[in-house]
Design goal:
Helices cover 28% and strands 18% of the residues. By secondary structure, the chain is α/β, with parallel strands linked by helices. The strands form 2 sheets. The protein has a 16-stranded parallel β-sheet, with no helix packed on it. The chain has a two-stranded antiparallel sheet with strand order 11-12. Helix 1 packs across helix 3, helix 12 runs parallel beside helix 13 (407-413) and helix 13 (407-413) packs parallel to helix 14.
């Protein structure tokens, strides 16, 4: 007897189930397409959607965004992003638009303002109306000053994450002091703000106890020496007497340090640290890294950017860290899974790199390294690749400007037991033959080849589930820019 046919359509599904299905869709284009299928789906999708990104396509801003808030009543995360285009009044958010926005989006918890040229301190004052605001990112707002940030600090009581990037008029740091003593920040990121120095963060006081993530970077490699803490008193370290034992993520970029002053002191205080990024920190030495290794047993990820400096005791001109740092990490950091090294300003002849290939190999063999990145490491050659091929945990490898690696080294890599992601950029020592050995032996998830002059597109087509091949990228110039200036020049993208 034939089984009765059961006919089921989306219209018969309960709204709760449809809502759960819609929540699984992450691409805006998919959500927009879904809302066109039926009036019911359009209504449910509007109820579910909690995030939106606004750019130049919304015009006029005030009317259009009011309509959007009416359609999506539960918006929690909103980003206004006008990067990449010249400011155009009427097509970009201004203070009055922000006032209207503060009245029609009561559920807002996360807000990003990116390249909003017409927002100034009075506009920031309207943000205090968002009583649930927890995360705020201000990126390239040329008109705001410290006065606007102070009003934010006083009025936004629930702020737990604050990002301030490329805001060049922000100077005095009363806002930072207020947040430290009265706020509840867990994430603080300040980058490329010319008038803010590393010593200003000493005003953050008890706020350090609550922080889980801290990042401070300045633009451009610094060549001046003898940084001065304007409030430093010899043998009186009261300003440095703070605790940051909750800090799990720390990034410092392009600052100059001395042994007793500045943010270098954080390296001896962060017992819970898991992720550490130190990009071209002048004055960093082996003692600092040995302290980190002994203090931070939970360390999982390290990124180091190193350039030559005059090193004691012989005043040799080289990168400051040596194998003593690597040996300490190998012995004391058993959970280290990700390691990134970038060398800038070093050449095969002079100046030299303080690390040796043997030191790097010892680290790889001692720790469960899954992600390994080398940039500008001319000390790493085919023997180093042979050691990598025996790394039991290695899954992702990225090599940029590693000019000593040849086809022989790539053939060693073909034996790597768990390698699934491979990125090769600006490497001219190997050819199609060497790369071909790897892709035939490994079932790669992703393969990225950028500006490797002796590797052809034909050799890598179909070599992995995802293949990217570029021979027209900016290459070396872009790499230098990133080392010198950080990612600031790419924020507009």
């Amino acid at each position: 007897m034939a089984k009765p046919q059961v006919h089921c359509s989306m219209d018969h599904l309960p709204e709760e189930l449809l809502a759960e299905i819609i929540k699984k869709l992450t691409r805006t284009s998919d959500l927009n397409s879904l809302s066109l299928v039926s009036k019911r789906l359009c209504t449910i999708e509007a109820e579910v959607r909690d995030a939106i990104r606004v750019g130049y396509g919304l015009y006029p801003v005030r009317l259009a965004f009011t309509t959007l808030c009416s359609r999506f009543p539960n918006l929690c995360k909103v980003e206004f992003n006008y990067s990449g285009l010249e400011p155009n009044h009427g097509m970009q958010l201004d203070n009055q638009d922000l006032h209207v926005f503060s009245c029609c989006c009561p559920s807002l918890t996360h807000l990003t303002l990116n390249f909003c040229s017409y927002i100034d301190d009075s506009g920031l004052g309207f943000l205090v109306r968002f009583k649930r605001l927890m995360s705020l990112r201000l990126i390239t707002l040329p008109a705001i000053t410290s006065y606007g940030l102070l009003s934010l600090a006083v009025g936004c009581k629930n702020l737990s994450a604050f990002y301030l990037i490329c805001c060049e008029k922000v100077g005095s740091v009363e806002w930072l002091e207020y947040l430290g003593w009265n706020g509840s920040l867990e994430e603080l990121v300040v980058k490329y703000c010319k008038r803010i120095s590393q010593f200003d963060f000493l005003m953050f006081g008890p706020g350090w106890m609550k922080l889980h993530k801290f990042e401070f970077q300045i633009e451009g490699l610094q060549y001046a020496f003898n940084p001065v803490d304007p409030s430093y008193v010899a043998h009186n370290q009261y300003r440095y007497d703070f605790s940051c034992e909750s800090l799990k993520g720390l990034t410092l970029g392009r600052i100059i340090t001395e042994s007793e002053i500045g943010l270098r002191c954080l390296l001896s205080k962060c017992k819970s640290l898991e992720n550490l990024c130190l990009y071209f920190v002048h004055g960093l030495n082996d003692n600092d890294m040995i302290t980190v290794a002994h203090t931070c047993s939970n360390l999982r990820s390290i990124s180091l950017g190193l350039r030559p400096q005059h090193c004691e005791p012989d005043y040799a001109y080289r990168t400051a860290l040596t194998d003593d740092s690597l040996n300490a990490l190998a012995l004391k950091c058993p959970m280290l899974q990700s390691f990134e090294l970038t060398f800038f300003g070093c050449e095969p002849t002079y100046p030299e790199i303080g690390f040796t290939q043997e030191g790097l190999v010892a680290l790889i063999q001692s720790c469960p390294i899954r992600d390994f990145v080398l940039n500008g490491a001319f000390i790493f050659d085919d023997e180093g690749m042979k050691a990598l091929s025996c790394a039991r945990f290695l899954e992702s490898l990225e090599l940029t400007r590693c000019i000593a690696i040849t086809d022989a080294g790539m053939r060693h890599l073909a034996c790597s037991p768990r390698l699934i992601n491979l990125t090769l950029a600006l490497c001219d020592g190997f050819t199609d033959d060497g790369v071909g050995e790897v892709v035939r032996a490994r079932k790669l998830e992703s393969l990225i080849i950028e500006k490797c002059s002796h590797v052809s597109l034909k050799a890598v087509q179909g070599a992995a589930k995802s293949v990217q091949y570029r021979d027209d990228c900016p290459g070396y110039v872009q790499w230098v820019d990133c080392c010198v200036f950080g990612e600031r020049n790419h924020l507009a993208g």
